[in-house]
Automatic annotation (TrEMBL):
It comes from the Bacteria. PROSITE patterns: HTH_ARAC_FAMILY_1, HTH_ARAC_FAMILY_2. The keyword DNA-binding applies. PANTHER family: HTH-TYPE TRANSCRIPTIONAL ACTIVATOR RHAS-RELATED. Pfam families: DUF6597 (PF20240), HTH_18 (PF12833). This is AraC family transcriptional regulator. The keyword Transcription regulation applies. It comes from Leucobacter luti. SMART domains: HTH_ARAC. Keywords: DNA-binding, Transcription, Transcription regulation. Residues 179-280 form the HTH araC/xylS-type domain. One of its GO terms (molecular function) is sequence-specific DNA binding.
Amino acid sequence: MITESRRGVLYPERLPEFHRVAPPRGLDFAVRWFWIPEWNLPAGVSSRQEILPFPACNLVVEPSGVTVVGPPTRRSERVLTGSGWAVGALLLPAAVPGVLASLADPAGAADRAGSVPEAAPDPARLRDAVAPLAASELWETVSAAMTDSGRAGDGRRAAAVVAVCDWLLASVPEPDAEAALANALAVALQDPGVTRVDELGPRLHSSTRTLQRIAARYFGISLHAMIRRRRLQEGAERLREHPELGIGEVAAELGYSDHAHFTTDFASVLGVTPSQFRAGAHLN
């Protein structure tokens, strides 16, 4: 099933073509959704994509290979030129240990500013980093699907998703009790009603200390940072889709104490103020 929610995509109108595909039954413990951008731009034309990513790991297949993208802590940007595609899986936390165990070269994961130290990787050590995955058969199958001129677009994308699903089913075990709690935590963190860490424990019948340990092992980002990210994603979406709302109103809806706190938080992660973001939201 193809869905068109674009939460986290800061400027949807700049996307050449973008799809989100729901995971099939039986894999919904491992993947929140699949995301597939495709582009074919004229010579000399570029498209700058800016994303405020979900605080999670992604498995990504591109023409250049297969990688695991670690949990991001900041806005990401990529300039598209020429033609290309990617097939990504936004992983649920229960899938993270199994996928990271398949990394081709843990020491090769490199942040834009340097290298991840040698050791078995974990989500925290892959923050803002990309690591190669030894999955040549997966790459070949997905590449063949995405470049099959005999299939319509939905057919190509569906075949590519099936290939990624097959690899994940072979690589990721069924969740145990701890992994299931990690997935439940991921759901709770997306609830707009959650604005503080101490609100999570009662919802999940667990202690804050246990949930902090789960966050470290399965997410690689603190609970506070994940709540903050969701609120900023929601804030960007509200600013973009509801120009009638004042910035103070948006801040209040998100649970911020005042306009200034929201503006400071927003600018520290996105690099622009809410007013600047809103002004550029519908510019191509």
